[in-house]
């Protein structure tokens, strides 16, 4: 289930299962003899997604930093310390950002699609890495999350992202869904939309990098809940409550899209 041998050597499904459970502060249900990182407790989960990421790779390779591009970078962050309480609004628990490169009409179009806040606009790719890095707290243990993360990893690598400092692990929800959701005829499509449908997670058809980063974290949370199916009775009351909080966050109500708000105001 390794996404890239340059980041991690090949690991077993049990390794990633323990990494997922451990990072969320849940007891381990799989073979505890599997060697896993000791740094994953008290982690922050950082989901990163790019739209037109191949254009960033081309730009960085050519050195043409002034090239006008239509690109989005989405970052969604969950501090696992917040899972102890269900009182915080979902938008404050899953902090999500959308960064856009492109002309003003593309920015406006992207803003209308983004569900979870304001969109940051960059005039060129030179400052993209800094815009991402300033969101990541390197003083904490970091678990990178993505769905089909190989492409996004290549983009991060091209940008010069630091994969060593405080990075305790990497989780790919596409690979986790493959391991957790059963046989192909049962699990359905492994595309993000298909995984969300299988997990009964509400999602909107507004496609943007920020939205996808947020939905990827929601998928990860609900995959953890699904992985505990049949093991709930082994949990104490505190862990049962934590699992309930994780499930509630994964299925929490979405904000009203800006596009819908604008349409309502016009009618």
Automatic annotation (TrEMBL):
- Domain of life, per UniProt, equals Eukaryota
Q: Which GO terms describe its molecular function?
A: nucleic acid binding
Describe the location of the Gfd2/YDR514C-like C-terminal domain by residue ranges: 73-222
Gene3D superfamilies cross-referenced by the UniProt entry? Ribonuclease H-like superfamily/Ribonuclease H
- InterPro entries, per the entry: Gfd2/YDR514C-like (IPR040151), Gfd2/YDR514C-like_C (IPR048519), RNaseH-like_sf (IPR012337), RNaseH_sf (IPR036397)
| SUPFAM superfamilies xref list | Ribonuclease H-like
The family database entries (PANTHER family) matched by this protein are listed as: GOOD FOR FULL DBP5 ACTIVITY PROTEIN 2 (PTHR28083)
- Name listed for the protein in its UniProt record: Gfd2/YDR514C-like C-terminal domain-containing protein
């Amino acid at each position: 289930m390794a996404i890239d041998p340059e980041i991690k050597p090949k690991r077993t499904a049990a390794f990633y299962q323990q990494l997922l459970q451990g990072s969320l502060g849940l007891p381990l249900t799989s073979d505890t003899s599997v060697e896993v990182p000791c740094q994953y407790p008290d982690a922050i989960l950082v989901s990163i997604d790019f739209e037109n990421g191949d254009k960033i790779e081309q730009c960085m390779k050519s050195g043409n930093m002034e090239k006008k591009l239509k690109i989005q970078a989405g970052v969604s962050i969950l501090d696992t310390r917040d899972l102890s309480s269900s009182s915080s609004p979902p938008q404050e628990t899953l902090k999500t950002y959308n960064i856009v490169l492109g002309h003003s009409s593309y920015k406006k179009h992207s803003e209308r699609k983004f569900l979870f806040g304001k969109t940051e606009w960059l005039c060129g790719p030179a400052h993209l890495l800094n815009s991402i890095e300033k969101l990541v707290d390197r003083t904490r243990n970091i678990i990178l999350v993505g769905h089909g993360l190989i492409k996004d990893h290549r983009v991060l690598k091209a940008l010069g992202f630091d994969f060593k400092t405080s990075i305790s692990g990497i989780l790919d929800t596409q690979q986790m869904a493959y391991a957790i959701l059963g046989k192909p005829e049962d699990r359905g499509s492994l595309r993000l939309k298909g995984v969300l449908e299988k997990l009964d997670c509400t999602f909107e058809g507004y496609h943007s990098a920020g939205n996808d980063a947020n939905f990827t974290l929601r998928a990860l949370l609900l995959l953890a809940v699904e992985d505990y199916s049949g093991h709930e009775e082994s949990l104490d009351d505190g862990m049962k409550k934590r699992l309930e909080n994780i499930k509630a966050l994964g299925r929490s109500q979405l904000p009203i899209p800006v596009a819908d708000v604008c349409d309502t105001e016009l009618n």
